[in-house]
Specification:
heterodimer, A: alpha+beta, Glutaredoxin, 2 domains, 4-stranded mixed sheet, elongated, B: alpha/beta, Ubiquitin-like (UB roll), Alpha-Beta Plaits, Fe-only Hydrogenase (Larger Subunit), Chain L, domain 3, 3 domains, 5-stranded mixed sheet, 19 helices, 17 strands, globular
């Protein structure tokens, strides 16, 4: 099993370091396993319920396993108006999964995102943090091709 | 002091007062849900909003401090409209099955819905379809009903420092759940049930077992014997519209017999017995260099806490079973023998102010009589429901008498129900055992009251004993950390899991604040003061038990029936 405490410990003395610690775990695992949350609570000397609260509060943390590539679709109003739902439909169709799910081969996960600050070019999706603006359903296969 | 005008009423209140406190001073009631008088301000439900002159937005009365000259309207049309909308929004996510709810007629949300004339809700009714958590023998969580006030979380984490409950997710998806989204049984929950008192609705409650009792009563092959804890009598009146402490003990016995209990005995009997065993255990440890400080072991929530959070200190716990379990072990041995009743037929029911007692009775090791020692535990609230179900009129119930051999008790047993009571009862007996003199003034007043941690040094003929009393597990933790660090100056420590002791137990009538706890404590000491015998060792039936059956405290039989051992809980996470 991974030594989560080794990953987490460098952040123990930082103010709000638990966020950094979770990011560090997620960078390795793509999600926050239960054992990692328990280890984090021990390192930060807080109850597990509190660490779990942090892990589930932020949409950028996931407590369930996710795919190698994380596709996030903005669900804020500007993207919604610009047709985010059609993009969602296209992504779901192309990957054969629903929002929140991961492909069986573990390659892709679909998630909603709040505004990613690219409202000049709606609708927006991000893949592993890289934004794609002005996305249309037709452009989906090509974008995904970069990651297949 | 600052001057504030609430609905035109001028009041002077301290500078740091909130609008809510100022309104109270002015005799104006502002509705609350997330606010709790014994907890920190949360201000998350917004039901207490008011209009403050000069401010454009409505302000939450619970969290807004007053200033000199502040003018507040608590009942303007805008305020009433806002509160109604807030209620409608809460109700849009709340089950509408009040008739089936355990908190029917005792629910803060229901009371407000009635007061604010909620008839039709313009918002679509969408509940979350969340399942009940019935994983423990004590508590049932019903997250469907949760209104996210987080009062349970505060009671669990801040007052009890158990940290079983927390918030999951955010905004619309937020829920109060045990850590990691597990069920209660996997969480560090110690089943004290303080979350129940904190809950304004029916989102967490005791596991109800009235039907099991009714079935046993209806079964001609079962002899139903009951014991009840000292904290039950003084609070049960609250369940049947009597003032706290007003239920007469013998009327209560009469009522239990009328319901169909075959024999009514008393946990007070084994509370006196506990003092005999525990008092001698303490003296033995002091004299023979045993593990000190010794902790009391009557409170099963506390035992769970110690097994969960302080497994390294289990040897400090008195090996005495709780009075409930001592009773259970004796009723199917000693009492059965005296009564010439086949113990296999005895159905032993315990009425307790406690939810953790349900768990305790189900511990696998609690079978030293050769049977499950206690078959069923009902809470004070369940007894109240039983009384209402059976329609007893307490102005007419004929007083009854406790049955023989395990029904006698002293004032020392009565005070077991309050924080400090076990300590005081122990000192009354230990003093006389050690000094051989009569204790003239039995009142150890240092031990009484709601102060979180109480301590004293008692001089027993030159033997100086340092004692401490903690109630509420947050206070217990402070005392325990001292012991763990090796800096504890005490010989003997009484710990009760619940604030105020058993009178504030998780199975008591819903207790809205510590004010009610203090009222119950007063009732318990006045009961003690009115009794002819106030020292456990003076209990004639306890004396007879030793003479005929146990022979001596800490003897072979006692060891077999009245003492136990503890096991680390080894929870996966804390």
């Amino acid at each position: 099993m991974m030594d989560y405490k080794e990953i987490i410990s460098p952040y123990a003395s930082l103010e709000g370091g638990i966020i950094e610690a979770f990011h560090a775990v997620q960078a390795k695992m793509n999600y926050l396993p239960e054992e990692a949350i328990i280890a984090t609570a021990e390192v930060f000397k807080i109850p597990v319920k509190e660490a779990y609260g942090v892990a589930t509060f932020y949409s950028y943390f996931s407590i369930t396993p996710r795919g190698k590539n994380i596709i996030r679709i903005c669900e804020s109003a500007p993207c919604h108006i610009a047709g985010a739902q059609e993009v969602v439909d296209a992504l779901e169709k192309e990957l054969g999964i629903k929002m929140g799910e991961t492909t069986p081969d573990g390659k892709f996960t679909l998630e909603f995102a709040q505004c990613v600050g690219q409202c000049q070019e709606t609708p927006v999706i991000t893949i592993n943090g890289k934004p794609y603006g002005g996305v249309s359903p037709e452009s989906i296969p090509q974008i995904l091709g970069e990651y297949k | 002091m600052v001057n504030v005008k609430i609905n035109g009423i001028q009041v002077a209140v301290p500078e740091n007062a909130t609008i809510l406190q100022a309104a109270e001073a002015a005799g104006v009631k502002i509705p609350t849900l997330c606010h709790h008088p014994d907890q920190a301000i949360k201000a998350n439900c917004r039901i207490c909003v008011c209009e403050v002159e000069g401010l454009a937005l409505l302000q939450a009365a619970c969290s807004t401090p007053v200033w000199d000259g502040m003018v507040v309207k608590t009942n303007s049309p805008a305020v009433l409209e806002a509160r109604k909308t807030i209620l409608e929004l809460i109700l849009a996510h709340h089950p509408q099955d009040c008739l089936n709810c355990i908190r029917n007629q005792n629910c803060e949300l229901q009371t407000l819905a009635e007061a604010y004339q909620i008839r039709e809700n313009p918002f679509e009714h969408i509940t979350r379809g969340l399942p009940r958590d019935t994983s423990t023998p004590s508590l049932v969580r019903d997250p469907e009903k949760c209104i996210l006030c987080r009062r349970c979380e505060y009671a669990c984490s801040e007052i009890q420092t158990v940290n079983a409950l927390g918030l999951e997710n955010r905004g619309h998806h937020a829920m109060v759940v045990p850590a990691l989204g597990k069920d209660l049984a996997e969480s560090p929950c110690i089943m004290c049930g303080q979350c129940i008192h904190a809950c304004p609705v029916g989102a967490i409650h005791e596991k109800e077992e009235i039907n099991e009792l009714l079935a046993a009563i209806a079964d001609p092959d079962k002899i139903v014997v009951t014991q009840m804890a000292p904290a039950v009598r003084l609070a049960i009146g609250e369940e049947v519209s009597l003032p706290t402490g007003a239920m007469d003990m013998h009327v209560l016995v009469g009522a239990l017999k009328q319901i169909g209990f075959d024999y009514v005995l008393h946990t007070n009997f084994t509370a006196d017995l506990t003092i005999m065993e525990e008092g001698h255990e303490l003296l033995k440890r002091v004299k023979e260099g045993g593990k000190l400080p010794m902790f009391t072991s009557c409170s099963p929530g506390w035992i769970n806490f110690c097994e969960t959070y302080y497994p390294d200190l289990l040897d400090n716990l008195s090996t005495c079973k709780s009075p409930q379990q001592m009773f259970g072990a004796l009723v199917k041995t000693y009492w059965a023998e005296k009564m010439q009743i086949d113990p296999a037929k005895i159905y032993s029911v315990s009425i307790m102010p406690c939810t953790a007692k349900k768990y305790e009775a189900n511990r696998p090791e609690m079978n030293s009589s050769g049977y499950q020692d206690v078959d069923l535990v009902l809470t004070t609230r369940e007894l109240g429901r039983l009384f209402r179900m059976t329609g007893l009129d307490f102005t007419k119930v004929q007083p009854g008498k406790f049955d023989s051999w395990m029904g006698a008790y002293t004032g020392a047993a009565v005070i077991f129900g309050a924080t400090g009571g076990v300590m005081e009862a122990a000192l009354r007996t230990v003093y006389e055992v050690v000094t051989g003199k009569t204790l003239e003034d039995v009142n150890f007043t240092f031990a009484r009251g709601m102060e979180g941690i109480k301590e004293a040094e008692i001089d027993l003929n030159g033997l100086k004993v340092k004692v401490a009393i903690a109630h509420g597990l947050g206070n217990a933790r402070k005392v325990m950390d001292q012991v763990r660090a090796g800096t504890s100056p005490y010989h003997f420590i009484e710990i009760m899991a619940c604030p105020g002791g058993c009178i504030g137990g998780g199975g008591q009538p819903i207790t809205k604040s510590n004010v009610k706890r203090e009222e119950r404590i007063k009732a318990i000491y006045s009961e003690d003061a009115g009794l002819p015998l106030r020292k456990s060792h003076d209990n004639p039936e306890v004396q007879q038990l030793y003479k005929e059956f146990l022979h001596e405290p800490l003897g072979h039989k006692s060891h077999e029936l009245l003492h136990t051992h503890y096991t680390p809980k080894n929870k996966k996470f804390l």
